[in-house]
Amino acid sequence: MAKTLFDKVWDAHVVQSIADGPQVVYIDKHFIHEVTTPQAFAGLDKRGIKVFRPKQTIATADHNVPTKDQLQPIREMLSRKQVDTLIQNCANHGIELYGLGHPFQGIVHVIGPQLGITQPGLTIVCGDSHTSTHGAFGAIAFGIGTSEVEQVLATQCILQTKPKKMRINVEGTLGKGVTAKDIILYIISKISTSGGTGYFVEYAGSAIRSLSMEARMTICNMSIEMGARGGVIAPDDTTFEYLRGREFAPQDFDAAVEKWKQLCTDADAVFDLEYTFAAADIEPMVTYGTNPAMGIGISEAIPSANDAGLEKALAYMGFEKGDSLLGKPVDYVFLGSCTNSRMEDLRAFCDIVKGKQKADNVTVWVVPGSKQVEQQAKAEGLDKILAEAGMELREPGCSACLGMNEDKIPAGKYCISTSNRNFEGRQGPGARTLLASPIMAAAAAITGKISDVRELI
Questions:
Q1: Where are the domains of the chain?
Q2: CATH topology of 11-159 equal to that of 164-281?
Q3: H-helix or E-strand spanning residue 343
Q4: What is the DSSP string of 211-231?
Q5: Can you give the C-alpha Rg of the chain in angstroms?
Q6: CB of 292 within 8 A of CB of 422?
Q7: Which phi and psi (to 5°) does residue 93 adopt?
Q8: Residue ranges of the alpha helices (H) in 193-276?
Q9: Do 53 and 153 form a contact (C-beta atoms < 8 A)?
Q10: Type and span of the H or E element at 442
Q11: Burial of 38 (0-12, 13-18, 19+ CB in 10 A)
Q12: How do residues 405-453 score in pLDDT, each as one tens digit?
């Protein structure tokens, strides 16, 4: 029987199928951080049991960590307590922790691929919705809740109902200034934030195959923003070359590649739902509302539909129906998050700002996704390019993606953000978030307003 890539990986990990119910699925790698684990570990301790397979659990501190003066005590008491609790729990259960000061520390969905822990054909979970990022490697990766984190810590398995299957094809050549972030924002704008509910998405087509691994991670990262359980892209030579030589890549790498080459959708496999989009129809995108589907091409106007949700979103954002976003002033620019904080993102941002000056009205936060990204950026002189432009390369963490640490956008201020969510208060109470690509963020940083990056390329 013909199978999709998703079927092949999922079915290989089913331990038991429950009649008319969910399946018990084996988990290869479990990523954990400081926010969704305290209650899970407390549950284990209450029952007097240890983590079943600690060597398959990888911990880091990312959500609550400051992005300046990381070797000093964390000032926010709740953040400090959560990080300290993670340190203690990992010590108690024999789990490797990449904490503050460790050369591998960083955002969980950045360090997994970067270290070669994320590999094709694996099942990967984390108490974080953007675990879907790892699907870029042909892995089945999805976020789980705290009770499920405890379940995996205790058994290395999880109870799950198998999702339906969707394929999204993007065909053709991307235009000038169009990036992976624009592709996924465009897709979500077309199928809505609930269009993927109940599905696991495979991204395919010539435009997807042309992308680098870091760009593919951006696509899969935001699968959850259309309601999907996760996203996956078939591994290919681009995948294999990315993984070659990484810290935790297989020792017999060529043998692993031969196995990974089998991870593709059979030609006659059937999906429950399928979409096809033309790459030529996509232009640089920016969101105008309070969910990721409220996005438009930079040359377009805000819709004028008679819709209560739209009106509520525009009232919060301070925009009007039919407005163009071009020329709207911004207060903050944030380059970072598990969506866009990798080397390619920093390089692209710096290519735009090099030799220019930050606009006086804008505060710019450039936050690398890991210590390795930070060190590489410094090795390439990107910190100097930023400094000459009046900007600063900070230390790694989730930062202003979410209002959970010191990096918050003040109420009423506008932030062009390369992160993944723009809900009310996502970046801080009352903050107004506009999602865009790294180069669109760079254009705003230089001009002080929402601009068409194609005019700066």
A1: 11-159, 164-281, 297-455
A2: no
A3: helix 343-353
A4: S-HHHHHHHHHGGGGGT-SEE
A5: 21
A6: yes
A7: -115, 10
A8: 206-209, 213-221, 237-243, 253-260
A9: no
A10: helix 438-447
A11: middle
A12: 999 999 999 999 999 999 999 999 999 999 999 999 999 999 999 999 9
